[in-house]
Amino acid sequence: MKLSNATLNALPETIKRPTYDRSKLTPGIVHIGLGNFHRAHQSWYLHRLMQQGLAQDWAIIGAGVRPYDEAMRLKLAAQDYLTTLIELDPAGSSAEVVGAMIDYVPIEEGNGALIERMAQPDIRIVALTVTEGGYFIDPATKGFDASHPDILHDAENPWQPRTAFGAMIAALKLRRDRGVGPFTGQSCDNLQGNGAILRQTLVSLAQMSDPDLAVWIDQNCSFPNAMVDCIVPATGPKELALAAEFGIEDQVPVTHENFRQWVIEDDFCAGRPDWDKAGATFSDNVHGYETMKIRILNGGHQVISDPGELLSVGTISACMDHPLISALFEKVEREEIMPHVAPVPEFTPQTYVALIQKRFSNPKIVDTTRRVAFDGSSRHPGFLVPSIRACLDRDMPVVGLALVSALWARYCLGTMEDGSIIEPNDPFWSDLTALAAKAKEEPKAWLSMRHIYGDLQDDPRFAAPFARWLSILYSEGVEAALKAYLV
Q1: Residues 291 and 271 in one domain
Q2: Which stretches make up the Mannitol dehydrogenase N-terminal domain (predicted)?
Q3: Distance between CA atoms of 108 and 99, rounded to whole angstroms?
C-alpha cells in the first residue's frame, strides 16, 4: 500500500496511524534537516501530542539548504509528508505512521523561499538537526569559525545565504522590520550546550554584516539547550523491505530503537508545544543529563566503534557480542567514565551504563560501526576528552581512555587488521591519515592536534600510556592490546 493521506485508513490494523485530521493542522515549526533522527524524535513527540488532540497549531514545515535535500523533499511530498516509524524491539517490531509534518519548503539557491517562510508570524520555532560538526565551531578555540567560506559568503550576501544560519538571520531581520517579533531557535543536535552554541553561531554571523540585528537577536530570541537521545540507523534496502513487510510502500521509512529521551530547557520566547505531555522532560539541569548521555552513551560509542571497525565487526550489537570489545566497553565505562558523572532524577550512572549496554546490544538495530566511527575529529574531543580531563583532575588513571585514543589513531591509518582499506570516514581524513602514519614512529605526533587534545600531549599521565598502547597495537595487534588492558 503506497503511503499517503488517501491510504491511511486502508493500512493493516496493526499499524498505528494519525487519529487527528491532518487537513486542519496549521504550522508552527520550521525544521531544517529532515534526516532520520528528527523524524523519529522531535516529529514523533509532536505527533503523540496531536494524537491527544493537542498542538494542532504546531505542525512542522520541513526545510533544507543544500541541493541534496531536494531528493528528500520530493520523496516526502509524494507521500503527503508522512513517515513510517518502525520500532525494532527484540521482543517484536511494530510500525507507526507519523503525520506531524505537513509541508516542505522548496530547495533553491539563495534560500529565498525558506527565508520568507520563517519570516511568517505563524512560525514560532525554527529547529535544526545539522549534525555536531555543522555549527561552524573553531576546533582550536571552540568559538565561532568566521573564516569558513560559507560563513564569509553569507556575511557578504545576507539575502542569498548558503547556510541555515544565514537564512535564519535574514528571516529574523524581516520579522524585526515587519514587527512580527522573534522566534525560538531550537537545536536538536547532539552537542553539549547546543542552544548556547546555536546562539553563538547566529549572533556571531549576524555581527559580521549587521551588528544592530545581532544585538536584537541576542536580546529577543531564545535558544533552549536540550539533550536528545534515540538510536536511529540509516535507511537502506533492508529498511525499505521491512516497511514492505508491514504492508507499506514508504520511500523513506525510519527504523529506531524502543527508547527515546528529550530533556529541554524551558526557554521559548514565542510559545511551545507541551512536549512533556508526550514524555519529554523540561528541566533546569539539562547540563547534567547532557553530561551523562554524552560521556556514557556517545563516549561509549567511540570506545567500541574503532576497535570494531579494525576487527571487521560490522555493527554495534555485534561489538557488544564480541568478548574483547564488550569487556573494553564495560571496564572503561565503569572505571574511567562513570565515576565522573553525577546522577539525574531518572538514572544513577550505574543504572544508565546498564541501560546503554542493553540498548547497544539490541540485535534488531543494525547500526554500523562505520557510521558510529564517522567524524572522530568532532566526536573524540566532544565525547571522550572531557572524561580524560576529569580523570586527570582527580589524579586517576586514564589507561583505558588512552587505549581508546590509540585505537582511533590506528583506525585513521586507514587499514583494518586484515589489511583491507578503510574508506575515508572523517571530514579531515587525509590530515588524520598523515598524522597516524607519522605517529606510528612518533606517537606524540598524534597528540599534537591541540584542537582535539589541548595540552594533553604534555601530560605524561596520558601521553605515556597512549604511546605504549600505540606501540602494542602496531607490534602485536588490536586483540593483543585489548587482552593486555583487560588482564
Answers
A1: no
A2: 28-277
A3: 25
pLDDT of the residue at 139? 72
Amino acid at 270: A
How far, rounded to the nearest angstrom, does the alpha carbon of residue 10 sit from its chain's CA centroid?
A: 35
Are 205 and 151 in contact by the 8 Å Cβ rule? The answer is: yes
Q: Which amino acid is at 3?
A: L
> What residue numbers bound the domain in which 243 lies?
5-284
Residue 327 in contact with residue 357, Cβ under 8 Å?
no
Q: What is the DSSP string of 322-354?
A: SHHHHHHHHHHIIIIIGGG---BTTB-HHHHHH
CATH of residue 417: 1.10.1040.10
CA distances from 207 to 117, 148, 273 (A): 23, 15, 31
Asked if residue 304 and residue 273 are part of one domain, the reply reads: no
Nearest Cα to 137, choosing from 158, 109, 165?
A: 165
pLDDT tens track for 177-229: 999 999 999 999 988 899 999 999 999 999 999 999 999 999 999 999 999 99
Q: Give the pairing of strands 125-128 and 27-32.
A: parallel
C-alpha cell at 469: 598502547
Q: How far apart are CA 206 and CA 40, in angstroms?
A: 32
Q: Measure the CA–CA gap between 144 and 450, rounded to whole angstroms.
A: 17
- Nearest of 333, 263, 271, 268 to residue 297 by alpha carbon: 333
One domain, residues 299 and 385: yes
Q: Exposure pattern of 145-181 as b/e (b: 16+ CB <10 Å)?
A: beeeebbeebbeebebbbbbbbbbbbbbbebbeeebe
Give the Cα separation of 112 and 311 in Å (integer).
Answer: 48
Q: Which 3 state secondary structure label does DSSP give 172?
A: helix
Q: pLDDT tens for residues 246-289?
A: 999 999 999 999 999 999 999 999 999 999 999 999 999 999 99
Strand order in the sheet with 261-264: 226-229, 261-264, 281-282
Amino acid at 137: I
Residue 371 CA to residue 170 CA, distance in Å, equals 34
Closest CA to 256 of 99, 84, 132: 84
The single residue listed with the C-alpha cell 561489538 is 319
